[in-house]
Structures are given as C-alpha cells and as structure tokens.
Amino acid sequence: MSEVKQFKLPDVGEGLTEADIVAWHVKPGDSVSVNQVIVEIETAKAVVELPSPYEGVVTGLLAEVGQTVDVGTPIISVDVGGEGEEDSGGAGTATTETDADEGLRDEALADDLVPAPPGEGAVEPGIEGSPAPKVERQAVLVGYGVKLGATKRRQRKGAGARARPDAGGAAGAAAPGAAAGQASATPEAASQPSVAPGHRAAGASGDGRPVAKPPVRKLAKDLGVDLAGVAGSGPDGTITREDVQAAVAGGAAPEPVVQIAGAREERIAVRGVRKHTAAAVTGSAFTAPHVTEFLQVDVTETMETVRRLRDLPEFAELRPSPLLLVAKALLLAVARHPMINSSWDEAANEIVVKHYVNLGIAAATDRGLIVPNVKDAHTLSLAGLAQALAELTATAREGKSQPADLAGGTITITNVGVFGVDAGTPILTPGEAAILAFGQVRDMPWVYEGELAVRRVTTLSLSFDHRIVDGDLGSAVLRDVGEMLTDPVRMLAWC
Amino acid sequence: MTTLTLSKALNAGLRKALEDDPKVLVMGEDVGKLGGVFRVTDGLQKDFGESRVVDTPLAESGIVGTAIGLALRGYRPVCEIQFDGFVFPAFDQIVNQLAKMRLRSQGRVAVPVVVRIPFGGGIGAVEHHSESPEALFAHIAGLRVVACSGPADAYTMIQQSIRCDDPVIFFEPKRRYWDKAEVDTAGALAGALPLEAASTVAEGADVTVLTYGPLVRTCVEAAVAARDDGRALEVIDLRSLSPLDLPTIVASVRRTGRCVVVHEAPVTGGLGAEIAARITEACFYQLEAPVLRVGGFSVPYPPSRLEEHYLPDLDRVLDAVDRTFAY
Amino acid sequence: MAVDADGAVTAPGPGSLDGQPDPRAELIQLLTPEGERADHPDYPLELTTDEVKALYRDLVIVRRIDTEAIALQRQGELGIWASLLGQEAAQVGSGRALTERDMAFPTYREHGVAWCRGVDPTKLLELYRGVSHGGWDPADHNFHLYTIVIGAQTLHATGYAMGIQRDGLVGENGEAAIVYFGDGATSQGDVNEAFIWASVFNAPVVFFCQNNQWAISEPLERQSRIPLYQRASGFGFPGLRVDGNDVFACLAVTRKAMQAARDGQGPTLIEAYTYRMGAHTTTDDPTRYRLATELEAWKLKDPVQRVKAYLVRTGSADAAFFEGIDEEAAQVGKRVRRACLEMPDPAPLAMFENVYGEPTALLREEREQYAAYLDSFVDEEATR
Fold it and tell me: What is the pLDDT confidence band of residue A485, given thresholds at 50, 70 and 90?
C-alpha cells in the first residue's frame, strides 16, 4: 500500500522566510532513510543540509535546483507505505510498533478510514502528518518563529456563551470569587459578594447604594435627580440614563414630605426640581449683578388685537393670548438690540451674542418651576409662535418637558400676572442676560389723549445682567417692548 | 501580650521560626555577629549558631542564589537584603529562578525562600536607602509579596512567610522599626490573620483608603484628623500585595463609593495603578469618583532634605480625600 | 603562562590538585587523540575492558541522541537544540565519576551527563520542543533541571553544597555537588560569586567548566586573559585543566575532585579543554565567525574515535562489538524520534498550574474565565 508524504520546507531557525534549493542528494526512485541528508538549501546566511524525516522511496522532487522556495512549501514527496518494512521510526509509517500506535492518528486514518490519496493534491493538514508546522509561522532567528496572526475572527457560539464581558483578558474581572475558598482564603471571603462585574446588583440591595455608571451619576447630579428615589431599569437593577431623564420629566415620585401628626415643623427633603431650581437661582443671583427696571404700559390696544386675532382663521385652533404678543414684542426688541440676547462666558472672558433666540417661558408645574424654551423663536410666524407656546405650556403642565427643552435658552419671559401681582424683580435664567416679567392686566386710570380714562394697564419688569447690559440698553429694550404693546401697529414697523 | 517594637517583633518571630523548624536558616550581610544593621536578627546567631545564622559575603545575587540551592536541599532560608536599593543585583535570581522554579519543574520543586527587605523612606538617609520597589516584584508571577505595618502583624507574618512553600518577598517598613505595640507572642499562629488577608484598621462610611507598610500609621492618623472635617475614612492595610485581597477591597469600595490608594512608591506604574484598575472594573456602578492615588512623584527618590515633600503625609492623604469628594 | 594551538601549556603554571606548581604541561591527559594510553602521576587510573567498552557505548549513544535531536529540529519538530557535539567525553567522563547521592547542576547542554545519571533522553526534548520548561524530577536522578540563565546554577549548586554541610554529610559517607558551566559563563557575576561562597565556606562543590572555546561567536580570549583554570587560585582553591576530549582523564580528574569535596576539602575548578564542534544552537551559524581549519584540527581529536582506536589498538573489541553499539545507538535514536513526534502538547489550562503551591484566588478566576472563553468558540483551534 502506498502512502505518500510530503516534507515541507521547515523553519530552520535562521530567520529565513525562504531558501534556495542548492543541490538534491536524492532523486525519484531512490530509497531514503530517516535523517539521510536529502537536500542542501541556501538561506540568506549559509548552506544548510536537511535530513529526511521519512524512510521510504522518493516519489517526487517538488522544487528545482535554483528555485526559491517559501518556508512551508512541500519540497519532496516520499512513499513511506508498505507492510512489514523495517521499522523506520518515522512519523506516521504504516508499520506498527508495539508502543508506537497511540499518537499516530495519521496512521489510523491511513489504515482504517480514508484511503490515503496519492500525490500532492490530497495533502491536508492534520491527516498529512507532515513534520512541518501545522500553522504558518514567520521564521525568526530563535525558536519556532512568530505565528502569523489570524486575519479573521474565529466563530463564536451564541450570545449566551459571551455572557462574561471580560473573558480571555487577564484583566478578568477583579478577582477572587468568594466561594472557592481554599486554605488561602481570607476569613471574610465567605461572606463577601463576588467581585465579578456580573454581580453589580449586589451593590444595589446589599449596600444600600444606588447603582449607576459614573456618566449616569453625573447626569443625575446635573439634573438634580436623587438616585435613591429612582428605580433602575437596567441590567441587575442599575439605573440608566433613561431612568434619570424620566425622573426629571415627572416620572418619579413627588418629593417625599415627612409629616408627623401634630408636629410644629415639617421637614421636606430638598430633591428633584426644587433642588435644581435652588441651585440655578442661587448661581444666577450671586454671579450676575441684577438690575431691574419697570415700565407701566397701556395695553388696551394689545388686548383688542388679541381679541381680533382670535377671530382670524389662522388662529382658529390656537388661543392667542397677551403672552403671544409680549413674546413677539420681545423678539422684535431683541432684533433691534441683539446685545440683550447674550451670555457672559467667564472662562473665555467673552460675551457671547446669540444670533438666534431660544425663548424661555417660565412655567409653574406640580414639580416646581421650570423654564422650557421655544427653539429659534425668532424664525417663527405669529401663528407658529402661538403654536409653539401652546405646546410648550401643555407639555410642561403634563410634566413631560425633556432636558433638551430646558437647555439652551437665550432670553426668558415670566408671566407673574397669573399670580395676581403687578411686577417683580425676576432672577435671570442662568446663562442669559435678560428676563422680562409682566404682571396682571388691570383697569387703571390713565391719561389717554390728554384726558383721564380707564385703560387696561400692565407693568413690565426687565431684569438684566449689568456685566453685559448697561442702563441705556436695558431701558431701550424695555421702552421698545412697551411701545409695541401700547401700539401693536408698531410691530409691523419693526418686523 | 508584650509590648515590642517592630524590629523586636520580627526578631521574636524569626526566633520562633528557628526554634520550630531546624531547617530554617537566616542569612545575609551582617545578620550574625552584628545582629543586622537594624538589629532585627540580634542575638540569633549566638543562640542558633553560625551554621543557621550566616554572615554572608557581600553579594546579593549570591545570597539569593545560594538560598535557592539550600532550599533545593530541603532547607528554608530567610535571606536579608540589607536595604531596598540593593536588591537589584539579586533581581535576576529572584525573578528568573525563585519565581519560576516551581512552574519550570511542573510542581516537583519548591523553593520556600523568604527574602526580607527593609523598605521605604522617611529616615533621612542617603541614596538607595529609601526605595519602594514592591511593584516590580508584585508584577512577577510565582512570587508572593507582603508588607507588614506594625509589630503585631510583623510577628505573625514573618512566621507565616517562612512556613509558606512559595517564595515570599517580605517588605519591612524601616521607619516603623521603632514603633511599639502589643504583640501576642503566646498565641497560636493558626489563629492569626492569614498571610493573604488585608486588614481593616479603621472603619468608615465615606471613603476607602488603601495602603500598606509605612503609611498605614499615617492613614490611620489621617482618619482621626478627618473626623474634624466630618468625614469617616475606612482604612485598609493591604498586607498582601501579591496576591491582593480583592474581596475585602471591593466590599469596602462598594459601600463607600470612593477610594484613595496611598503608597510611598511613585504613583506611575505603582501598585495603586493595578488596584485602581481592579476597583474600576469591580465597582464601576458604585463609584462616585475615580480612584485616586497618593504616592511619590515620577522622580528618583530625592535627597533627604526634600523627602518630606516627596513622601505622602497626613495632609496629602486628606487632600486626596477632599479631591475625591469634589466629583 | 602561554598556551599553544593544541591547548597545551608551553610555559608551566600552578594549578594541580595539590596546589604545587607542575613542570609538566598543564593539560591532564590519559588517552591521546590516537588512542594511546598516557599516565599522569596524580591520576592513576585502572579500567577494565568492560569499563572502557561501557564508556565507549555511552559516548556513541550520547552522540546519537544529539544527532537525532539536530535532525528533528531541522525537520521542524523542535524549536531549537543545543548540541554537545565534540563534548561527549567531558560529559560522560565527569558524569560517570558521580555517585548516586551526588547532585549535578547542568546548564542546558549536558545531555551526556543526563544520560549518565539515568534521565530518559526524551525528557530533555520537552524543553526544546516547547512542551514544558523542564521534563524531569531533579530528585529522581539527582540531576537538576536545565538552567538557561548563564551561570545562575553555580550559585544553586553552591547553596546545595552548603546544605550538604548542614546535613553533616561531609567527610565520612559524604556527598558533593557538581555544577557545569561554559567558558562564557566564567564572566558572569553569579559564577564569580559562587567561587567566593564556595571558597569561604569550603563548600563540597566541584565546578566543572567545559571550555569549548566559544560563547556563541565570542572566543575565549574575550572572556579571560588567563587560562580559565587559573581563576581558581585567585579565589583560593585548586584549579586544573584536563583534556576535555579525553574520557579517561575527565573521569579520573572528576573522581578525585569529587572525593576531595566529599571529604571536606572544599571546591575544585576543573577546566575541561574541549571544542564545540557544532553551532551554539541550531539557530546559530558558526561559519560567520570561525574558520573551517579550526574545525578540521579538532576533528583529529575526536573524543569518540580515540576510544574506538584504543579498543582496536588493544584488541579489546571486535567489529561485532562496534556494530552492536551502532545498532543500539540507532535504536535509541529512533526511540527518541518517536517519543518526540508523539509528545502531546500541554493542555491550555495547564498554564495556570504550579505557579504556587496552591493557586491563588486570582489564578483560579483567570483559569475559569479562560476556560469559558475557549469554550465559547464553535470550533477547536488548530494546534500549534
């Protein structure tokens, strides 16, 4: 029975990746024995003689004299087959020795399973039994050589097998699983929770600390959300970013009030929106020097205009209100005095004048005071502005304002009139330069066209950041708003 | 219970080990007649003889290399390297032979050698006498690395290290050699805290402070001072630097949410880096702030007139605690 | 002190075992390259024919093992091999001088000493095949594992000898240690420290230096200005030079030095003057740094041939004997080859074992995770 084996050019450890065939010492048909020198190869450095790993008959020289051959290329084929031949001791011969059987799987295959195909076409790694390395390696000067890296990933089993996120790395989750306790275990080991990352939930219940990633913690802090009051929907009960945002929008429980019957005092924990508001106004009040100017305005014409707008089909679904015209007037005043719509950048030592208006509307909600803003209000038509304002207030009232709605405002209006007061000294929304409050609209005695009359009057209060806005600018803005509200036609002239 | 200095506690522990096992040997420069430059081996040669307490030639590689040979012959040598900065000639024998012999022999050969090294600064010494090279050894698989911090631990840890069948690098905080404490010299070793265990030396809920060796005392003092700031520090003496007692560390940080690691060795590439990485991985969801490290600067140990600026002290520890609360 | 090309000293210097200056050329030789017996007054040696035949058998088989290993490397079955070609006599001669209780500390080339101690030659292959860092138990044959860091084992041997002293086994019923190292190693600090320790403690250790003239590409002259055996006098103990290609002399010299050590006379430095006929290892290319003529000159001093010549010359052995030895050697070669090819690769998780007496918690965890990682792949990875 014939069994042809191929000898691939091995890494002879001299840093060669290829070699030239210098001289063959055998030819097809010759018998060769193990370790008989069969070929001389020339590396970049020297001539090396290669001994045959096989005993048998040469069936083919697979490389020619003078040919440059890469390491791993078959250079000679030898028929090692034949029963009862004297033991060659070479790898994978068909003859058996009493103690040689076990590791020689190529022998088993040759005899029992697949008839060994002849010739080079049938060479397969694993069955071949070639002594050359089964995995291609880059030859180096010492040792087997560098194994060429894979260029594609090995296929992994389903997601379940990938449960451990850190498998393989020595980084392997911190350390000692508690259970395994050997003689070397610490006395506390048995009672410690496992430190593997998969067991993060242990933290939540066991230690009383809410579990959340650092970025989520920061978000909660920025939004004034107390993690202790947030239920975690993430894996193992961790609190996610979404959980925090939902808590801001009102999904979480209202501030707990501790009440003891008959107590003379009650203590309310400062949490959530209250905490955030407190921080915001404190920051604002004690950073920006506030100046407030007041102007009483005859808004009879404005109220008439509002009534007439309501009759227009464009405003049929909307309910125009005095707020709409106050907002429009402010937007037009901003266009005339852009500096009022700016922000003080302490770090850069610069004033940032915004050429867009995100108009904030202060809203009182069940959870407290929030200031959502209408983005790019300056681009909206009057009807668009009415729509936006309506949506904004509805959303706020439902407690569904998103963090994005609350951020990025450039100027604010606050309606204190709904509380039944005339005026106030509003505190700037942090990052803005001005805030306009308007009070209730009342019937007041007024000098109208030279004569005493009963007119609809309101008070405008404009607070501004005196670092950016001096009295002349602030006054000009306030005056412009007042003029537009006194005579709405003026809006047409200034838009 | 007796009150002993750390140096005397080590002496007592060595004496007990020499008494308990005739195979235990002590060897190093000046350990015999002189009793060691810190007197840690004082009196031992007189009582146990020159064959068991050996004044060696001035050759650190020779000390560790011959100790390996003695261990191959069945002895349990306890080597002394006179000062931390002089361990480097022995580094090859420690890293290439001591650490690897068991694996090389596939478990057939054990080398139960202890290498004692006085380490750390704060004693006003000249160059090479104030180093903290423990991270270099903790990085080498096959070695155990421990550091005692006080007399009670020193007494038990040195005996446990000698009994351990693995090679142990045993660091002794030289500036604490004269610290005194109660030591239970009558207690059975079996009842002592295991060699691999860390010890919580101060309990607190606000921040976990991890340290070892000479700075344990400093951190405990910092914990007392921190009460004035209204902060409760949990101070853990790591004791075993390799392997680390991670369950104890992780349980604490999961409770406090904050961690500061303190060592004299330079921060860069120091043990604190390994600990911080492990904690970040195991406590990510509980951390309020990143793990901060207090240690030496990335400079060679300075002349002694400057060492107080280099070495972590109570204020630097509490400054780090402050910073961990700034997040 | 001057040395000619044959290594014979042309001007005498100190260093015989007795410490007395010896007017004869300091190259102890009992068997000439031509196979003639020579005498040395300090080393009377009587060997029976059977004993000589046994030595010849050792030499031939040791050479055959070495040759087989080189071939296996050339066929990609070993990553590397350090050949002892040309040094067989130094190793067999000294190896056969040891008693069972003596302990030998080799470098990484003492395959001949391993053979004499009874270590299965296939065990030597594990290291070179990359299956383990050491395949045998030192205690089984009192032959320590191979040490690759140059010279490190000289300190181990010295410490071991100090242990023998503490066991009270010096003098009557004594034991000793022998440590092997090369000419290059004599420059290492550890070797010099070992000389110091062995001398000041009078330790029962024999330092057996195979001066094969080359440390990879660097010649002896780069390691020492004086003949190596003279180094010992600087440390205060006897040193001698023996013809390293003369198995009789190596046997005699080592016997005497070992007995002196066992008796409590302390260390001896034996310089076996020999030649590395092959490359430093199979990755080395000696044609880059030495002349073919040098090789040719040393071929004439072949250690195996001279014993054969002696046996023929004295009519002690016939052709059948020599053929029988060759056949036996071939069988050993085949056995080594087969064992090499059949050697199983270690299981991946074996990596985590035997780092410590008991695995640490961290190691257990790493092992578990790596096992799970390996298990997560659909196919088994192709080996090697």
Answer: very high
Q: Does the CB of B250 have a partner CB in chain A at under 8 Å?
A: yes
pTM of structure: 0.72
Distance CA C247, CA C338 (A): 30
Q: Which residues of C touch B64 (CB under 8 A)?
A: 155
pLDDT band at A175 (very low <50, low <70, confident <90, very high): very low
- B98 and B54 housed in the same domain: yes
Examine the fold and report which residue of B159, B191, B223 is the final residue of a domain before the chain moves on. B191
Same domain assignment for residues B47 and B168: yes
d(CA A485, CA A295): 11
pLDDT digits (tens, 9 = 90+) for B211-264: 999 999 999 999 999 999 899 999 999 999 999 999 999 999 999 999 999 999
**C360 to B109: CB separation less than 8 angstroms, yes or no:** no
Q: Is C337 a catalytic residue?
A: no
CB–CB contact C358 A184 (8 Å): yes
Interchain proximity A131–C77, CB inside 8 Å = yes
Do B169 and B259 have their domain in common? no
Q: Is the ipTM of this complex over 0.90?
A: yes
d(CA B28, CA B60) in angstroms, rounded, equals: 8
- The CATH number of the domain where B250 resides is what? 3.40.50.920
Contacts of C354 in chain B (CB under 8 A): 102-103, 105-107
Query: Residues of C3-29 as b/e, b for ≥16 C-beta within 10 angstroms?
Result: beeebbbeeebbbbbeeeebeebbbbb
What's the pLDDT band for B63 if we cut at 50, 70, 90?
very high
Q: Which of A283-292, A375-384, C42-51, C165-174 has the lowest mean pLDDT?
A: A283-292
User: Which tokens go with C101?
Assistant: 């209780």
Q: What is the CA radius of gyration of chain A?
A: 43
- For residue A13, the model assigns a pLDDT of 63
Q: How many residues does chain B have?
A: 327
Is there a catalytic annotation at residue C367?
no
In this predicted structure, the answer to whether residue A365 has a pLDDT above a threshold of 90 is no
Looking at B164, B191, B218, which one is the last position of a domain? Answer: B191
Q: Which residues of C touch B73 (CB under 8 A)?
A: 159-160, 162-164, 166-167
How far is A100 from chain B, CA to nearest CA, in Å? 26
pLDDT at position A83: 46
Instruction: Let me know whether B60 and B79 are in one domain.
Output: yes
What is the Cα–Cα distance from A425 to A291, expressed in whole angstroms? 8
Q: Tell whether the model's pLDDT for residue A107 goes beyond 60.
A: no
Q: Do A156 and C287 touch (CB under 8 A)?
A: no
Please report, for the domain that includes residue B129, its CATH number: 3.40.50.970
Beta bridge partner(s), residue C239: C269
User: Does a cis peptide bond (omega within 30 degrees of 0) precede residue B243?
Assistant: yes
Domain region containing B151: 2-191
A337 and A470 Cβ atoms separated by less than 8 Å = no
CA quadruple C256, C262, C265, C270: dihedral, nearest 10: 40
Measure CA A202 to chain center: 25
Question: Is the domain of B32 the same as that of B148?
Answer: yes
Same domain? For B151 and B48 the reply is: yes
Q: Per the structure, how many domains does chain B have?
A: 2
Chains with 3 or more CB pairs closer than 8 angstroms to C?
Answer: A, B
What single-letter amino acid sits at A370? Answer: I
Distance CA(A398)–CA(A420), nearest Å, equals: 23
Q: What is residue A261's three-state secondary structure?
A: coil
Handedness of CA B114, B120, B125, B126 (dihedral sign): positive
3-state DSSP percent of chain A in helix, strand and coil, to 5: 30, 20, 45
Cβ <8 Å between C375 and A89? no
B160 and B54 in a common domain? yes
Q: Which of A192-206, A214-228, B301-315, C193-207 has the lowest mean pLDDT?
A: A192-206
DSSP H or E segment with residue B135: helix B134-138
